Amino acid sequence: MPLNKEIQPGDNDELTRERLQATFDTQQMAAALWGSDLARKRRELAKKVDKLTVLHDSKDMSFMTREEKLSENARKVVQMFAHVADIVEDPSDDAEMFHLSSNAIGHEGHPFGVHFVMFIPALKAQADDEQREKWLMPALGLQLIGTYAQTELGHGTNLRALETMATFDKATDEFVIHTPTVTALKWWPGSLGKSSNHAVVSANLIIDGKSYGHHNFMVQIRDENTHKPLKGITVGDIGPKMAYNASDNGFLGFDHHRIPRRNMLMRHAKVDKNGVYTKPPHAKIGYSAMVHVRSVMIGHQGMFLGSASTIAIRYSLVRRQGEIKEGSGEVKILDYQTQQHRLFPQLARAYVFMFAGKEVRELYQKVLSDMEKGETTLLADLHALTSGLKSVVTHLCVAGMEQCRMACGGHGYSRASGIPEIWGVAVGGCTYEGENMVMLLQLARYLMKAVKETKKGKSLGRLVDYLLLPQDRHSLIGRVPQGEYGPHLAAFEHIARRQIFKVADELTKLQDKGMSKEIAWQKKAVELQRAARLHTRFYLAACFHRKVQSVVDGRIREALADLYHLHLNYELLDMVNYALEDAYLKADQVDFIREDMYRLLETIRPNAISLVDAFEFSDRELRSVLGRRDGHVYENLYKWAKESELNRADVLPYFDKYLKPMMLAARQRSNI
Ligand SMILES: CCCCC/C=C\C/C=C\C/C=C\C/C=C\C/C=C\CC/C=C/C(=O)SCCNC(=O)CCNC(=O)[C@H](O)C(C)(C)COP(=O)(O)OP(=O)(O)OC[C@H]1O[C@@H](n2cnc3c(N)ncnc32)[C@H](O)[C@@H]1OP(=O)(O)O
Ligand SMILES: Cc1cc2nc3c(=O)[nH]c(=O)nc-3n(C[C@H](O)[C@H](O)[C@H](O)COP(=O)(O)OP(=O)(O)OC[C@H]3O[C@@H](n4cnc5c(N)ncnc54)[C@H](O)[C@@H]3O)c2cc1C
């Protein structure tokens, strides 16, 4: 039995030969990536979806209008829930459900796009027991469709400036929800425009003329039967986007719309019938749905990059172009060092982002169960970690996916490659759930606080313990026996620590000169976000290290270690300027890192296809002609192109309408 379990009869011979070179069992690697239980569930789930034709795309989404896309994905999501009990083992398991949705529906969106990701998590974390009974149960039972309406046309990042008002009317025991200006219109919420009938709405709580800041309210927006907007509510779709166009991201306005007082989510903050307000145990506890999405995004973005890497690496083993040795025939493009250097670091990133995604979800679950008991100590750590990871991971993912697209040459630009859509969805992640730069600055705030604690000899939290350690002056890279990578990881730590202390000192100096804290912060904002990035990249490298150490199987550990070492070298070179600034690294050490990276590209090359096969993305999930498991790319590209709506007739009406008259007139003029 070959170690690569993706080999099947009828596959492209080239890919089979590549797969036979695997040094590890791909199913065991899948278990390392997903966890053994989820890996098994994914495999079984994909087989079941294959058999259920009602869950299959009726045609390629690239050839559909937006309305067709919305309708197609509404059809599939309904079928998916109708069959869910036969397909998944545990419908309450988000990870399993995400894989089902990924196989059956894809990533362009669907009517429940925000329902499961934000609406339900907001209810779980912020609704009290009675409210959970009233809304959470029906929401889980699909009796209603919800979204999360926070962002406004004029305000997204700065939540303190949100304008939507929720004014308490003691006489009727109601809140009056109102949109005072055009900039106060809710704008962007997923599935709001045409699909949802309920929304968790962020609005300023006003009692007796006093504002208590924004809180979350449950608002029914459409009639349950007619689906018409309720009186006092204006709602619609915001129009086409870069990608994600099967989602009806929407706008929403309120004209003195009344809701019962008990529609404010009251697990933590409360308003009683006399208008007495009770503060939550933590000012930002109402932000929990955002933290939830940030935590799930890390692993999902890793999967997006993993998908793009799979497509580009498989295609690079089918595509032949040019010769390395004259006369010996065209080579597979993956045999070029430049192609390996373009793709393998992206593959390594996809692996580590998935590992980090798992770690961060574990921390999220811990904080969630603490919050249930009113305990919020770890909230700040989780906020800092998710803010940094969300920003760095989305940024590196889209940069990496762009490399994957370019590595596929012209065919990468075609929607047949599948990369444009996943790229478009992934790049949205740089903006939603907190614009990346803003979130990096949130982490920087935490790091600056951590420096203050360090100066008192204390640590602010486990994630910043390393700030207490002394700085080494010189790196040991290349000065220790070959194969030891401890000094590489130490270099990440050194670079991060140095930048964090450097910017902290600079802030102090500016303030010592009389500058206000806020202006000093502005003067150093770019350096601060750099500190946040370097801290996060150190976290990622350390996470990769922890993962490799934890693997028991020798063959898996060895293959993962190759990726890890490549990651260390590649990422260090990407930020080498920081290590050169204080002569921590010398030129010969940088050369050493480069040479070792080139060596690793060659080491990884025979395992390349098996490393992407180990993700076990089904063809249905990848939705890519270039990334097909069987490697039969060309005949299927031709088949795909023939599906284009432009090929429905040899001559399209615009020819007779515009081009023919123009050419006839031109001919007549030339005959005169
Ligand atoms: C069918 C079944 C399917 C199942 C599917 C399962 C899963 C799918 C999951 C994902 C899908 C994958 C692909 C998706 C594709 C498409 C997209 C799908 C969904 C996207 C949905 C998107 C939703 C949104 O975007 S919702 C809107 C998000 N908005 C934001 O993020 C706004 C950003 N702004 C802020 O967060 C804040 O304003 C701010 C910048 C943090 C500042 O807040 P502010 O109140 O002004 O505080 P400050 O004064 O700055 O800080 C005070 C103090 O508080 C601390 N702080 C801030 N926030 C938090 C927090 N969250 N927790 C803890 N502490 C916090 C801050 O650090 C500061 O602390 P200090 O004083 O000690 O320094
Ligand atoms: C695909 C998608 C799905 C979405 N889904 C939802 C949803 O379901 N529900 C919902 O409520 N919202 C949703 N959003 C909205 C999203 O959360 C916001 O777009 C996001 O929070 C960024 O806010 P903004 O658009 O106001 O950007 P802005 O804040 O206007 O950012 C513009 C620029 O200003 C900079 N900037 C802003 N503030 C600062 C600062 N303090 N310091 C330094 N620079 C700053 C940013 O870095 C950025 O470069 C979605 C958005 C997208 C793209």
Automatic annotation (TrEMBL):
Signal sequence coordinates: none
Protein name stated in the entry: Acyl-coenzyme A oxidase
High-level lineage: Eukaryota, Metazoa, Ecdysozoa, Nematoda, Chromadorea
Parts forming coiled coils: none
Sorted UniProt keywords: ATP-binding, FAD, Fatty acid metabolism, Flavoprotein, Lipid metabolism, Nucleotide-binding, Oxidoreductase, Peroxisome
Domain Acyl-CoA oxidase C-alpha1 residue range list: 287-448
A single Gene Ontology CC term: peroxisome
GO BP field: ascaroside biosynthetic process; fatty acid beta-oxidation using acyl-CoA oxidase; lipid homeostasis
GO molecular function, one term: FAD binding
Pathway(s): Lipid metabolism; peroxisomal fatty acid beta-oxidation
Binding site for FAD: 151, 190
Compartmental location: Peroxisome
UniProt keyword DNA-binding, yes or no: no
Domain Acyl-coenzyme A oxidase N-terminal: 25-145
Pfam families per the UniProt record, alphabetical: ACOX (PF01756), ACOX_C_alpha1 (PF22924), Acyl-CoA_ox_N (PF14749)
Domain Acyl-CoA oxidase C-terminal: residue ranges: 489-663
Family, similarity comment: Belongs to the acyl-CoA oxidase family.
PANTHER family (alphabetical): ELECTRON TRANSPORT OXIDOREDUCTASE (PTHR10909), PEROXISOMAL ACYL-COENZYME A OXIDASE 1 (PTHR10909:SF250)
Active site: 433 (proton acceptor)
Cofactor(s) this protein requires: FAD
